[in-house]
Design a protein that fits this description.
The complex is a heterodimer of chains A (156) and B (221).
Chain A lengths: L1 H27 L3 E9 L7 E10 L5 E7 L3 E12 L2 E7 L2 E3 L4 E4 L4 E8 L8 E8 L4 E9 L9
Parallel strand pairs in A: 1-10
Antiparallel strand pairs in A: 1-2, 2-7, 2-8, 3-6, 3-9, 4-5, 4-8, 9-10
Chain B lengths: L1 H40 L7 E8 L4 E4 L4 E3 H4 L3 E7 L6 H13 L5 H7 E7 L7 H11 L4 E4 L2 H11 L3 E3 L10 E3 L3 E4 L4 E6 L5 H17 L1
Parallel strand pairs in B: 4-5, 5-6
Antiparallel strand pairs in B: 1-10, 2-3, 2-6, 4-9, 7-8, 9-10
Classes of the chains: A alpha+beta (156), B alpha+beta (221).
Chain lengths: 156, 221
Amino acid sequence: MINKLILSLCFTLLLFNSGYAEPIHKTGYPTLNFSKIVVPEAPPVASVMVAYMDIANMSNQKQTISSVSSEQFKRVEIHSMSMKNDMMTMERLTSLSINPGQTIALESNGLHVMLIKPKKTLTKGDKVELTFKLSSGEQITVSSYVKLINNNDHHH
Amino acid sequence: MTDNNQVTDRKIKPFLLLAIAAISILLGIWVSNFNIKTTATVPKNLEATLLERSKPVTSFSLVDHDNNEFNLQSLKGNWSFLFFGFTNCPDVCPLALQVMRSVWKTPALQKSIATNTKMIFVSVDPDRDKPEHLKSYVQYYNPEFIGVTGKQDQIDELTSQLGILYGFDDPNENGDYNVSHSGQIILIDPQANMRAVFSPPLTPQSISKDFIAIQKFVEDN
């Protein structure tokens, strides 16, 4: 009888642990790793903000970000900035693919996440949450705090 | 008589030749000194592009963020840093204004900043950037900064002579549009001559260093 109880307890613990292990695996080892996230403070009247970061593909297959969203902004888009015809030209990317093992830097004068029409003014220290949706269906939410940039030090 | 003339000629000729030689030597020294002086004062190792010949800015008419006239006269009597962009710009314009703010705070520039320097952000997007909006935007970076805009053809009067390019993208499904634009900061001297161009990547350190050298060069000439 005691043996049966111990056995069922072990079984329950095993079930509990295996059930609990999955989200840990998801959050602890995401397919994409986001680091160096910086959201510079913008003038309160600005209708756009920007987020810079490094995105590393930790998986062994190509990952594609199909959209980005945030409850704090009306829209979030991934943009590229490049020099065309002697002008700094911004283009919206409909998706962003990252090869296995590759790290893409989103930084000024290059790629960036554009945060459009903040629902409330965000200033230094405010938390910003962004959800990246992958074409695989996976969603990864990351956060950072608005930072006051005193210089052009948001370059990596 | 002829003999006397010949004697006089013989006496004069060596003196004349000596005088010409002496004048030539002095002229040569003067010219070489002049050249040495000119080349010596041209700043070296600039990251900015210093115009070989300064280019006078000609008449234009815009408004500042208080709806006051901003024209050629507004550029006279002070050094002006001009950047052209728009306030819906997420990346390039904020970065340029942050750099301008850092230049403004450079300790070595405090004397000229306090007396005769202006930082000017010209919006090429007058439909969205009304003067009062522009004021709040630029003064976030520094209360002394000046926002300027105007009608499109008035803006073109200034951009065309400074080599600034810009263009509007088609609006997207939300009605938003992007503005492509030059990323340079233009430096204008107190006589309203275009003097130098700072091209990306812009850093406050290089702009400050170059500004000090260019100021000295212009004042010495």
